[in-house]
Amino acid sequence: MSAEIQPDVTDKPQGLRSRINPLLIAAMVVAVIMAWQWYETRSQIANLQQELEKRMVEMDASNKELRNISTKEREKREEVETRFKLLETNLTESISRQVALEKLYQDFAPNRDEVTMEEVEQLLLIANQQLQLANNVKAALIAMQEADVRLQRINRPQLSPLRKALAKDMDLLKAVPNVDTMEMSLRLESLAQTVDKLPLAMEIRPPKTNAVSQVTWAPEGVWPKLLQEVWNDIKQLVRIQNMDEREIPLLSPSQSYFLRENLKLRLLSAHHALLARNAVSFKANLKISINWINRYYDNKSKPATSMLEILRQLHDSEISIELPNISASYDAVRNYRLARIQEK
């Protein structure tokens, strides 16, 4: 009997499994990685949402504080404007008096010296008002110099003590340090206009890396090459940035808008404090502006570094100066006129 040779039916399925198993394994690996990334992404989103809610609460509290500060600054500004209006009113009255005095020159020539002394008294009064109400040293010095010119026109020996007192008060004004408030004011206005150009810190993006890790295994076949390309693309979807330097706050578009507007308000408040010679408010507003730029903006960008440098220079400047008392010359002229009236 001849033995029948049975066909080897197991060879074909084994070859099929050897071709299918790597593809299934690669698919399962990709599915596991994508599921892990999905889970990590959801966890990060949840953490970011919690942090955002916390930041929004802090920003709301900060906005309330800024509104209170804005109200106080508006009241101070109104007070300063009231003082300036008072000065303008006094100046208008002084001009009206000078016009009336010019008429007196023509009508009462023998009393011209008395009219000149009244003008001198008015000029010294204006000088005191400019110094006490507006802290305007330059305007006060100009008024006192004009009063000295009027006294020179009379040219009487009896007026020598008056001129000495006037010269002493002018020397006190000349010794006051000069603070260029006009230049500082222009610099603050320029900074307020460039706030919208400052880049936020959360807008910084990590550099894109084009280099792909070298693969020593070169796959053969269409499916292995396709899987390798998909894997390389998946690795490029995630980029890691080192955030150890500082914590960058995330802001919504509305919060970014209010942040810029509040920074402008701080610079405007510093501008009004400068005009009022309020050193405490001036330095406080500049310090808060510097802190906000360092915290919320890209402080390494060119606009931010330039603004920080100017703000630090302004913060280190002294605007509060000790003003002298120049009432001695005014009292001397007033007492002289009262003595002349009593003699008559």
Task: Please provide a written account of the structure.
The chain has 344 residues and is mainly α. Among the domains are: 76-176 and 323-343, no CATH class; 179-202 and 250-322. It is built from 10 helices and no strands. Helix 2 packs antiparallel against helix 3 (137-154). The longest helix is centred in the first third of the chain and has 97 residues, at 11-107. It is rod-shaped and about 125 Å long. Residues 1-12 and 211-216 have low confidence and may be disordered.
Summary tags:
344 residues, disordered N terminus, mainly alpha, 10 helices
Number of strands: 0
Provide the helix percentage: over 70%
Structural class: mainly alpha
Overall morphology: rod-shaped
- Largest beta-sheet details: none
Distance between the termini: 170 Å
Sheet-strand content, in percent, reads under 5%
Q: How would you spell out the order of helices and strands?
A: HHHHHHHHHH
Rg calculated over all Cα atoms: 40 Å
What is the assembly state of the chains in this entry?
Answer: single chain
The number of helical elements comes to 10
- What low-confidence regions span 5 or more consecutive residues with pLDDT below 50? 1-12, 211-216
Average of per-residue pLDDT values:
79
